Amino acid sequence: MVIIGDAAHAVASSSGQGVSMAVEDAATLAVCLRNIPDTDRALAAFHDRRRQRVERVVEYGAKTSSDKAAGGLTRLVVRLLTPCFLRKAAKDGVDSLDWMFAHRIEWAERTGLGA
């Protein structure tokens, strides 16, 4: 049995990644099972490939959740300044969240697995 998605690693809803993580888990598991004939090794490879990203997304979600739980004055400042930061980031071409939202799983790639 393999547990994936929120059952394996519930992320804060503020990260917007709950369903994405489940789909990424499923696709990565499929790649590992397809490319590695030994099931135990395939499952170990799946775990290794997902661990760092999952930990980073969970950590990001926890941080943004705690930011949203701030007091009244902090919420006001954040609400007023966030649009400015977002406009500046868009203008400067900052891709600070590409690691989360532009993640790709290479289905066709077979290298690096099963070795």
From TrEMBL:
Keywords: Monooxygenase, Oxidoreductase. The keyword Oxidoreductase applies. The keyword Oxidoreductase applies. InterPro entries: FAD-bd, FAD-dep_Monooxygenase_BioMet, FAD/NAD-bd_sf. GO terms for molecular function: FAD binding; monooxygenase activity. It comes from the Bacteria. Residues 2-59 form the FAD-binding domain. It holds the Pfam family FAD_binding_3. This is FAD-dependent monooxygenase. The lineage of its organism: Bacteria, Bacillati, Actinomycetota, Actinomycetes, Kitasatosporales.
